[in-house]
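Try it yourself: sequence plus adenosine-5'-diphosphate, in.
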Amino acid sequence: MALSILLVVLVAALAVLLLRREATLRRVRSSLGPSTSADAGASAARLRATADRAAAVVQDERTDRARLLEHLGSGVLRTDPGLRVVEANPAAHLLLDRAPGSLLGRTVMEAFLDTAVESIARSALEGAQAVGEVHLADADGPTLIVRGQRAVDGGTWLILDDVSELRRLQRIRTEFIDNLSHELRTPLTTVSLLAETLAREADAPGADLPPRMRDRIGKIEIETGHLVQMVSELLDLSRIESGGTIGLLEDLDMGQLATEATERLRLFAERQGVRLRVVTEADLPSVRGDGARLGQVVINLVHNAVKFSPDGGPVTIRARVEGQEVITSVEDRGVGIPTSAQARVFERFYKVDRSRLRAVEGGGTGLGLAIARHLVEQHGGRIWVESVEGRGSTFAFALPIFVP
Ligand code: ADP
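Structure, out:
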């Protein structure tokens, strides 16, 4: 009897276990998906459909990319990690003056015949954002901006933009300004000298001129002086712009250079009631450049700082090290520059407010900062301004420390 009860209990326990296992299996099956052979066939078909859809999307993307590259004005090349061209659009062939398709399989060096492009591609291979301007082949070859970018597969993308026309127009503009200033300089200098003589004669004892006439002669003298200054700054600018890179290179101590440049303006500042203060770090590391030109930059900045401090606030000139650069700055507590104008003050001929300028010093050419920016950039540096209207401005430029 006991045995049969035990047997019944055992059978019941077994049945419960089996039922539980069946339920677990059902759960697992339902989470895994259909399990019958019919279900398996359906799911395989679904998988195939998904794969087909993905393949179609990839194909569409490829077609789109090919179309885009074909019609793009910029030249686009893709290279493998060995810098061999594996893809190049029609614009790339056109810019490099090659027959369609002939760039494929060539190395970057064979394609461009230019070491600068090869080093851009190498930097891109290493993951750096590389860009440079190159003038290809002979004098008639195009001027290209080449941008390099690492491709996902380990190769590189090279993007080419033709800036030949832009550079040609810039050259014509520079030549035009240069010629015009040359033509204007001689007659203007003569007129200026004559106005100066007239003004002196009008002021001489015994010269019996009505005050109104004397006043007008004085104004003619001042305005011709401005014209002469504008023409000579225009000449400076076009010379600097067409000069490309700087000629004379010396090891320079920016502290000393800033001090000397500031000294030249001390008298002018005193006349405006402005106190000049120079603060420089001792033993500043050298920068490399043309001392006369960098001195000109400091002079332009200090001159402005004094000119735009009508209430005679102090002007502080500093030279200090920051990271790998020497920063030279000129701080004033003058009229300041509205935020909207700050980005534009380095453009040629830009002036914030002509009436304010006249009130301050009686004129300006709007070229001083354009010249300063050119000079600083030719030295591999950058220039910027921080300013609050009504409170004052700090103009600063950074030059790389010279590492011999
Ligand atoms: P210029 O001084 O001959 O007009 P710049 O190119 O040197 O030409 O300066 C351009 C303009 O930037 C000036 O006309 C002036 O409006 C503004 N500016 C330059 N320096 C300062 C300064 N320190 N404070 C206020 N405004 C300035």
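One thing you can check immediately is this: The chain has a mean pLDDT of 87.
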